[in-house]
Amino acid sequence: MSYHYDERIDGALVTHDKSAVVAQLQARIPDLQLLYEQEDLRPFECDGLAAYRATPMLVALPDKVEQVAALLKFASAQKIPVVARGAGTGLSGGALPLDKGILLVMARFNRILEVDPEAGIARVQPGVRNLAISQAAAPYGLYYAPDPSSQIACSIGGNVAENAGGVHCLKYGLTVNNILKLEILTIDGERITLGSEALDAPGFDFLALFTGSEGMLGIVTEVTVKLLTKPQSAKVLLASFDDVEKAGAAVAQIIGAGVIPGGLEMMDNLAIRAAEDFIHAGYPVDAEAILLCEVDGVESDVQEDVERVEALLRAAGATDIRLAGDEAERQRFWAGRKNAFPAVGRISPDYYCMDGTIPRRELPRVLKSIEELSNEYGLRVANVFHAGDGNMHPLILFDANAPGETERAEALGAKILELCVAVGGSITGEHGVGREKINQMCAQFNSDELSFFHALKAAFDPDGLLNPGKNVPTLHRCAEFGSMHVHHGALPFPELERF
């Protein structure tokens, strides 16, 4: 992809002698594991967005809070950028390293410190896998609700950084709705506690501010999450449609009727066929679109909701409706959806996963526009998304070895995100901005808003050392890429040099 850290527009970085930095860190923190040989750095060149790659100056793999604090103090004093990384499953290039910086890998912070079934909480280190929390809570009849598709591998620290969601976030919320407390370290190594185990904490909600901040404000060292009681009953309906727009319209009708499903997911024909070939979930490969609708709760309420949803789906034009007959079939239905991304990866050399959000009422119109853009750019698009909250994941299929296709895929992705903004949505729902969408931030926000974001970051990180060049673009970047808001023909900040 075309984005790279450009010191002209993203901010100058100090160049350090790697061998000197390694020697100083080894002297200051002798028990800290460091990687600095070229062959050892290669596995850390990218996160889940493999199209963007960079080699860090060195990698640090701490396993103690004291090590992280000491490293941050050193980096702050020496003006060395620090990029935090969890499991490396992120899809926006948020953990992409800098060749002049330290990559701080938190994977060894992987202990579940406490599960308290009476309080309904778990205290975990940031490197703990999302799914491992639910597995640890299962003996008590509890679970952790956010369930991103990568939950078998992604870490809770990364979930906090990106405010991750999942197929059940419509009813149970994103990460920000399911964490109670964070222990963090600032760039100068100061320990801070955000939130509490109580229902609410006084003062400003810094816990919510930090969640989704993409490693730009501090480093998470401990997370306290809420645990929920497993629903008494959960049932899934799989509805087939002969038209994508009908499926989109059905979503608004279900929510408009007052039903809040545990999950409400949509896939188009290209995604259906890819998932069925990969997982054998029992999807109808002749359908133009399917909706997966799960209702959960008390058995009597679930049965009533199933009947209501089935009637709504038929009225919306569903050609076939199947109710999962047992738990095994329910899990198969969800396995197809949760494996849609790797399934698409089997039918295309490369794909580019988008993450825009739109108002639910705009689903039919936006899906039609994406189809038109797909034809215009000559690239196939598989639509997979959290239909209930309008979080879209169009997968743009391309071949990086074919001349011009990478650039077309990137341009098509930008158009889709700009379309999301135009209908009242956002350029991201749960994958974060990272490097992938940083140019589109210039279309989402005006110069005053971006200036405020920079001021907010500076309050936590005055020298801009934590994950620079991500999430919030400089005004120079917006001017360079021509996306800065223009009001009445006057470009803000005319004194900025246009490169």
Automatic annotation (TrEMBL):
Gene3D superfamilies: 3.30.465.10, 3.30.70.2190, 3.30.70.2740, Uridine Diphospho-n-acetylenolpyruvylglucosamine Reductase, domain 2, Vanillyl-alcohol Oxidase, Chain A, domain 4. Keywords: FAD, Flavoprotein, Oxidoreductase. It is an enzyme of class 1 (oxidoreductase). Its cofactor is FAD. GO terms for cellular component: glycolate oxidase complex. GO terms for molecular function: (S)-2-hydroxy-acid oxidase activity; FAD binding. Pfam families: FAD-oxidase_C, FAD_binding_4. Residues 52-230 form the FAD-binding PCMH-type domain. InterPro entries: FAD-bd_oxidored_4_C (IPR004113), FAD-bd_PCMH (IPR016166), FAD-bd_PCMH-like_sf (IPR036318), FAD-bd_PCMH_sub1 (IPR016167), FAD-bd_PCMH_sub2 (IPR016169), FAD-linked_Oxase-like_C (IPR016164), FAD-linked_OxidoTrans_Type4 (IPR051914), GlcD (IPR004490). Its EC number is 1.1.3.15. NCBIfam families: glcD, PRK11230.1. This is Glycolate oxidase. It comes from Paraburkholderia fungorum.
